Amino acid sequence: LLVGAPQDAEPVNGTRTGAVYACPLSASTRDCQRLAIELKDEPDKAIIEDMWLGVTVASQRQPPGRVLACAHRYTRVLWSGAEAQRRMVGRCYVRGNDLRLDLGDEWQTYHNEMCNANTDTDETGMCQMGTSAGFSANIIYFGAPGAYNWQGTDYMLQRENWDLHDFSYPNKRNGNTYIGYTAEVGSAVLQQDAVTVVTGAPRYRHTGAVLLLSRGARQALNGSLVLPGPQVGSYFGSAIALADLNNDGWQDLLVGAPYYFERKQEVGGAVFVYMNEAGGFQPLPSLLLTGPSYSGFGFALASLGDVNQDGFQDIAVGAPFEGPGKGYIYHSSAEGLQERPRQVISGSELGPTPIQTFGYSLSGGLDVDGNSYPDLLVGSLSERIVLLRARPVINILDKTFTVTPGKVDPAQCTPRSCMTVTLCFSYNQSAGDPNYRERITLQYTLEADRDRHPPRVKFSGSQSATYTGDFSMPDTRCQSQELLLLDNVRDKLHPIVLSMNYSLLEKPRRFQLGPHSLDAFPGLTGTSLSLQIEFQKECGSDNQCYSNLQLQSSFVTEQNQPLPRVNGTQVLQYSRDVRKLHLSINITNVPTSPTNGEDAHEALLNVTVPPSLLPSSVRPSGACTFGETVLCELGNPFKRNQRAELTITFEAIGIMLDTREVVVWLDLSTNGMSPLPFTPFPSPHPAPRASSHIQSYFSGTVVGESAMKQEQDVGSPLTFDFQVTTKGESLGTLGTILLGFEWPYEIPNGKWLLYPTEILVNGNDTCHPPGGLINPLNLTVSPAGLCHSAPSRRRRELEPPEAGEPPVTLATGRRPRSETVLSCSAGTARCVWLECPLRQTQLPSSFSLRARVWNSTFIEEFRDFDRVKVTGTATLFLRSQVPTITMRNHTVRFSVDVDSELQEEQPAEIALWLVLVSVAAGLLLLGIIILLLWKCDFFQRTRYYRIMPKYHAVRIRQEQRYQPGGLLPRRRKKLWVTKWQEPDKYY
Question: Which part of the chain is the Integrin alpha second immunoglobulin-like domain (predicted)?
């Protein structure tokens, strides 16, 4: 076992160079020896103090293979005159399988200093080679994260026969990404027969990344694929591992991000699993493994190999900061890595004192004890390492687990015998060692009906459904146990589930000098089995019962007549005499096709009753039990073509006037739920009665509103009588029945129409509707009995009165009769709403609405009409906050015919002589006026041309016109041009 100790000091001179220790497999835990790697301390050429030798340790993993140890802080010293410059280039050392230096081996004599110390940080002067490194059969590779201003690079040396080829990742001027922080080399990654370098860059664009590099031209490693990290600061790529998880021949990739976190899920650290898709990887992981907060889960990764010999590679994950540190073991399958760990090993379980930071480093895949199972070496920062050796894995073969008979007939079972359980086992080693014949004891537990309480069976000789026994191999072959069926088993439809769990009975460990052989402490691949025991049933060949339970139900009367339905819902007419309700239920199991109508086992009817009903009895007697619900057993089984009829009687203890609905749920065990609602509607039946119209008159003179003091000053009186009769019970506080009036109050221009004076209820009481609409002018109102001027009124009845002669008032010499109608619906009148409550709904009530015809309005606006018909409406309605109490509104229309009694004036006759004298006098006066105007020259007109001025002109030809002489100053030439046109004629 090779262990690096980067902070170790030389035992002779105390120089802290670091070291590599070799620990043999022995009984002693303190026999590790420091390897003598020849280090020359030449301070003027190189600095080996704090060079961290052992920061990386690797081997070729084969018997003649070599080992590798690196010191990434190895520093070269360059001199420029008297000034020394230091270059931390790093260095790696190769030694033989005997851990000694062989000068004849070119692998060991090669300097393995890939960085040029003569350059600065922009090149490879601070490359820190050896931060990561590794071996294969003919390849050695190094990671140098400090090269190119900490962009980082990877170096790969490949030996082919006598040739040595070196490759490196070029300078991409992408500083501070730490390429080469971790590195792995393998084939079947991007191509089956080509080598791929997989390297981690934990600071790539702050989120980290993994780069897949391939060999290119001119000894370069070209980037073929980049898998970016998901989170800033997660250090994605600080640990990587390659393993064929699903055994498809391609290497899958695992990437650690120890500082990944999810605050709400309390996650600290993650491992991203990328499944290889025939040489390609998706940008998103196939699986994400996470650890608890602050655990550093994924700080170290290692491929274990096939630790359980199931044909799939397994993985180890380190979480060094989870308590004392833990190591997680994950198994794989054909679908890839399993999400849950198969084993979790804590640093507190491996000795008398906990090992802190257990899991800081991991190395696996080698069988160090020769038992054909790979082992795991775990490092820590506590100066201790732990070798975890894999135990042999036992495969249980010929697992015979049967029950006879295959189907249980309860009629054939006895108190001593019913079913026989038979167990048979054998085993082999998963690694295929034919000489492995250890004596092992298998401890098994049989458990029947584990998920049912109480179970339906028990084992013979006990009262329990659980049995525990031992099975020694390879001597024992089979064992049998009797399983008995309990009495009065109800559930004969569902099978009895019998499960078996088994484990190895470990032998006590004895002290032994040196590593113990693990052959006597094997592990198991499988640990449980189960089977189902079916009941003998009259069902189909698939042993599944497909019944056809049908349910019909309705509420019925004492005479077994269903209650009426409204829109599919039964309706109960509310009455205080309702004391009981009867629910009739019919259930059938009649086949409607060849695939249904089979026996219905454990058929139950569960009736959920609301608090307003109390179940009191059932027919037939004893068919149901009353508790929180009504439970009716229909049969076990309810046979094919069987019918059942039930009648459940309920006490209506909670059905009140405000009850809206009562819902009873019927739950048939194999047919789901069937709701059966019905709704009672309390229905008071009011019967309003009123007449169609009455008559009144208008006449006299116009009187202003301010001059009116008494109601007689307004106009003719009107009295409307309404009688209301209701059938039913008093509503109490649940609602109020009101009589409302749509009253024609005024005409559109705002003048009064019918002036209401008062509303009398039952002859004595007065109703005052809100808003002050009754007698708003506060006129003096005469008692109802003193109004003798009002015409007689008939009482308003529901049926219209018999047709009689309509009242007619004629004026002498009046023109033919004309009529107009004033109503609110037509917009010819403005109405207000008046309403009065019925205080006693159980007795008839009478309403008298007294009013006056506003005489002045009719004289001013309607004097040209012989009759004015004024209409309104009266509505009886219910006002209630309880939605179950409803009443249909009853509306009647009333009208009053107001006839005119105004006398028209007779036209006066004029004598003929008077007309003739008047015409003659008018003509004489007109002649005198004309004569006077003529004398004043009023009719003379001055002509226009006589008063206009007159001028005379002579035409002179152009050549005869005056020309100015030479004595006159010569006219200057104008700066502009004018054009003179000589007309042919002058006017």
Answer: 539-671
The CA dihedral of 285, 286, 292, 297, to the nearest 10 degrees, is -60
* Strands lying side by side in the sheet with 614-619: 549-556, 580-589, 643-651, 614-619
CA distances 216 to 112, 141, 194, 528, 657, Å, are: 21, 16, 12, 53, 93
User: For the domain 37-228, what is the CATH superfamily, name and number?
Assistant: Integrin alpha, N-terminal (2.130.10.130)
Contacts of 598 (CB under 8 A, 6+ apart): 538, 539, 540, 545, 546, 547, 591, 640
Residue 426's Cβ-count burial label (10 Å; 0-12, 13-18, 19+) is middle
Could you identify the residue written with the tokens 């201003």? 149
- What is the chain's mean pLDDT, rounded? 83
Which amino acid, 754?
Answer: L
Q: How many CA atoms lie within 13 A of 934 on its CB side?
A: 6
Token pair for 373 = 């199972």
Q: Is residue 814's pLDDT more than 50?
A: no
Sign of CA dihedral 727, 733, 734, 739: positive
Q: 612 in helix, strand or coil?
A: coil
User: Strand ranges (DSSP E) for 361-477?
Assistant: 361-366, 375-379, 386-388, 393-404, 407-408, 419-429, 440-448, 457-459, 466-473
DSSP state of 372: S
Question: Looking at 365-369, 841-845, 892-896, which range is the least confident one?
Answer: 841-845
Pick the more confident residue, 659 or 136.
136
Residue 810, pLDDT score = 31
Q: E strand or H helix at 923, and its extent? A: helix 912-935
Helix (H, G, I), strand (E, B) or coil at 150: helix
**For 688, phi and psi rounded to 5 degrees?**
-75, 150
Q: Which residues of 644-679 are buried (b: 16+ CB within 10 A; e: fewer)?
A: bebbbebebeebebbbeebebebbbebbeebebebb
CA 885 to chain centre: 40
Alpha carbons 257 and 207: distance in angstroms, whole number: 10
State which amino acid sits at residue 743: W
| Interacting residues of 248 by C-beta distance below 8 A, sequence separation 6+ | 276
Cα 720 from Cα 712, distance rounded (Å): 17
CA distances from 403 to 53, 381, 448, 455, 527 (A): 66, 56, 12, 17, 19
Count the neighbouring beta carbons within 10 Å of the beta carbon of residue 926: 10
To which H or E segment does residue 163 belong?
A: strand 163-168
280/248 Cα distance (integer angstroms): 13
Coil, helix or strand at residue 557: coil
How far is residue 801's CA from residue 794's CA, in Å, rounded to a whole number? Answer: 9
Q: How far apart are CA 190 and CA 215, in angstroms?
A: 11
Give me 540's structure tokens: 């189909």
Q: Which residue has the tokens 């459940």?
A: 648
> β-pairing, 132-135 with 139-144?
antiparallel
Strands 630-635 and 569-573: unpaired
The fold of the 549-681 domain, in CATH, is: Immunoglobulin-like (2.60.40)
CA distances from residue 26 to 88, 366, 439 in whole angstroms, order as listed: 39, 17, 27
Place of tokens 């390897």: 35
Three state DSSP letters for 33-47 = EECCCCCCCCCCCEE
- Give the model confidence (pLDDT) of 581-635 as tens digits: 899 999 998 888 887 888 887 788 889 998 888 999 998 888 899 988 899 988 8
Neighbours of 175 (CB within 10 A): 15
What's the CATH architecture for 393-507+520-535? Sandwich (2.60)
CATH class of 685-781+817-900: mainly beta
What average pLDDT does this structure show over 761-786?
83
Q: Rounded CA gap, 640 and 648, in Å?
A: 24
CB contact at 8 A, 934 and 733? no
- Please state the separation of Cα 953 from the chain's center in Å: 111
Residue 510 or 406, more confident:
406
